[in-house]
Amino acid sequence: MAYIIDGKALSQKIRLDIKKETEQLKNQYGKIPGLAVIIAGEDPASKVYVKNKILACQEAGFFSVHRQFGADVDAETLIRTIIELNADDNIDGILVQLPLPKPLDGDAILPFIDVRKDVDGLSAFQQGLLLQGTPDLISCTPNGVIELIKSAGKEMSGKNAVVIGRSNMVGKPMAMLLLRENATVTVCHSKTENLKETVKNADIVVAAIGKAKFVTADMIKDGAVVIDVGMNSVDGKLCGDVDFENVKEKASAITPVPGGVGPMTITMLLKNTLQSFKRKVGASL
Ligand code: GUN
Predict the structure, then answer these.
(1) Which ligand 1 atom is nearest residue 99's CA?
(2) What letter would DSSP give residue 202?
(3) 154 counts as catalytic
(4) If pLDDT is split at 50, 70 and 90, which confidence band does 137 have?
(5) What are phi and psi of 122, to 5 degrees?
(6) Has this prediction a pTM greater than 0.85?
(7) What pLDDT score does 285 carry?
(8) Percentage of the chain with pLDDT > 90?
């Protein structure tokens, strides 16, 4: 039976540290970190995520701006909003909640975010820094995964790590971060042949597929560390990419859904916003 990695508890601990540091910086510099969240449309899951991000800002003592647009907003309006926020000295981080409603194209809008305010770490600049091994603002979900693995006291150096999924938001940055930890990294995706055998060889499995219970116990090596990035809605219930009940019997450590990766994503967003703020005021990073 695996050790269940408690993302909620780890998240609370880190958020408390961020809150304390924010208080100290406020006393020292007379300013607080600011995050702007832009959302278009009424996707219920996106609205919940955005609400939680704003709430997390308030609890950490950050300033936050919430810009809600209708699903029919045009790209120019979003771009103009981003340009205004780029120039706003009270704002240290800007994020556009994804996915954007059709026909809006994130690839045409996100590049307008000032790369030093790109607290989602999705820009070519921030992802390029990560690729080169000198990261600045790291994508929140993969960064949270690394913290979760470390919190469980699990070694990554020299281990076989398999990432399932190759998105710019999770899979690709995840692979780079595991490589930075000196893991031997394999990225699997929808075209991968013998996926099962590849995953079976992994000491660390990160599942970011978007299919409920895709990773089953027969795919897992005894004692593996299994991190579930999945957020699937099944009959109105949140369900991960891993068959948790069965996989936990084989893994040595595993994250649950909910209560694993999810809370850490927002915590890493706060961390990035704080880091951007510290650079602005000239505090040591
Ligand atoms: N949609 C789902 N997760 C994320 C995230 O981490 N950032 C943004 N901007 N949109 C998301």
Answers:
(1) 1
(2) -
(3) no
(4) very high
(5) -100, -10
(6) yes
(7) 84
(8) 98
Q: Which of 35, 141, 169 to mutate to test the pocket of ligand 1 (most atoms within 8 A of CB)?
A: 169
Q: Mean pLDDT for the chain?
A: 97
Residue nearest to atom 4 of ligand 1 (CA): 98
Contacts of 11 (CB under 8 A, 6+ apart): 263, 264, 266, 267
Pocket of ligand 1 (CB under 6 A): 95-98, 120, 140-141, 265
CATH 3.40.50.720, the chain: domain bounds: 140-261
pLDDT for the residue numbered 69? 98
Q: Which fold has domain 30-114?
A: Rossmann fold (3.40.50)
pLDDT for residue 32 is more than 90 = yes
Distance 98 CA to ligand 1 centre (A): 5
**Whether domain 140-261 has CATH 3.40.50.920:** no
Residue limits of CATH 3.40.50.10860 in the chain: 30-114
Confidence grade of residue 109 (pLDDT, cut at 50, 70, 90): very high
Protein residue with least CA distance to atom 3, ligand 1: 98
Q: What is the DSSP string of 231-264?
A: -EEETTEEE-SB-HHHHTTT-SEE--SSSSHHHH
Q: 10 Å Cβ neighbour count for 123? A: 20
For position 107, what pLDDT does the model report?
A: 96
What number of CA atoms fall less than 13 Å from residue 179's CA on the CB side?
16
What's the 59 CA to ligand 1 centre distance in angstroms?
Answer: 20
pLDDT for the residue numbered 30 = 98
Cα separation, 131 vs 254, in Å, equals 27
- 3 state DSSP class of 265: helix
Q: Whose CA is nearest to atom 1 of ligand 1?
A: 98
Mean pLDDT across the stretch 4-32? 98
Q: Which atom of ligand 1 is nearest to the CA of 98?
A: 10
3-state secondary structure of 47: helix
**120 in active site:** yes
